[in-house]
Amino acid sequence: MRTKLLLSLFLALGNTATIFAATPSQPNVVLILVDDMGYSDLGAYGGEVDTPHIDALAAQGLRFTQNYNSARCCPSRASLLTGLYSQQAGIADFTGGDRSAVKGPAYRGKLSKYCVTIAEVLRPVGYTTYGVGKWHVGDQELPTDRGFDEYYGYTKGHSQAQWDPTTCRRLPAGRTPEITYTKENFYATDAFSDYAVNFLKQAETKSTPFLLYLAHSSPHFPLHAPTASRDQYLERYR
Fold it and tell me: Please, which residues have CB within 8 angstroms of residue 126's CB and are 6 or more apart in sequence?
């Protein structure tokens, strides 16, 4: 199993990217999406919040000096998943009802059937495809309908409580969850990271290259943070 990764860090609404170049013809690919975070919120770009892990990625890779995004969470992730403008992907402004009959094909409110996700491109050429976290590119289709072999996260709506494990599901249907949570031990950011690590361990047992798409729901609202994380900034913001 190749150990080199093509590791890209994408921040929605910041779309800052850190890339570790890999030379194999079929590199492993990890995409990490941080939802609705401005690029200047990161410590690597002068932000006042401590982001040591993301800063480490930035220090070892490339930091972009300009970027473009679609100004909202779902159009930005539609572009990231498909490589298209969000209008071409069918999510011009937001998910929801299909308004294409009135406003045109850019307003389907879900990913268009005429585009492909990165998972749909990589799986046919031998990749095992994993997804974790917030889907939000249309409730009508599941991640496993758009190229992902394995998925854990929530597939309904644009925001869910960080403390409620019942919003998340393990896909495909019938798959036994590798990690189970209760309301007492669930925090979405940690759970998504746990599953990402679990999927990486699964990938290590295979001879195929892999794609891992980790789509965090934070810091998109609701702004739910553990007490310890919150309280360490009280004096700083005062």
Answer: 26, 208, 209
pLDDT at residue 49 greater than cutoff 50:
yes
State yes or no: is 53 an active-site residue: no
- Provide the phi-psi class of 208: left if phi over 0, else alpha when psi is between -120 and 50, else beta: beta
136 catalytic per annotation: yes
What is the average pLDDT score of the chain? 89
- H/E segment holding residue 79: helix 73-82
Residue range 191-200, pLDDT digits in tens: 999 999 999 9
Kindly report, residue by residue over 200-212, the tens digit of the pLDDT: 999 999 999 999 9
- What does the alpha-carbon distance between residue 28 and residue 203 come to, in Å, rounded to a whole number? 10
**pLDDT attached to residue 24:** 61
143: its two tokens: 């991640």
User: CA separation (Å) from 115 to 66, 82, 96, 143?
Assistant: 26, 7, 18, 14
Rounded distance between C-alpha atoms, residue 109 and residue 55, angstroms: 34
Q: DSSP characters for 46-104?
A: T-SS--HHHHHHHHHS---S-----SSHHHHHHHHHHSS-HHHHTBSS--SS--HHHH-
Q: One of 136, 158, 216, 220 is an active-site residue; which one?
A: 136
The pLDDT score that the predictor gives to residue 68 is: 77
Of residues 73, 74, 158, 220, which has the active-site annotation?
Answer: 73
Q: Which residue has the tokens 């729901």?
A: 217
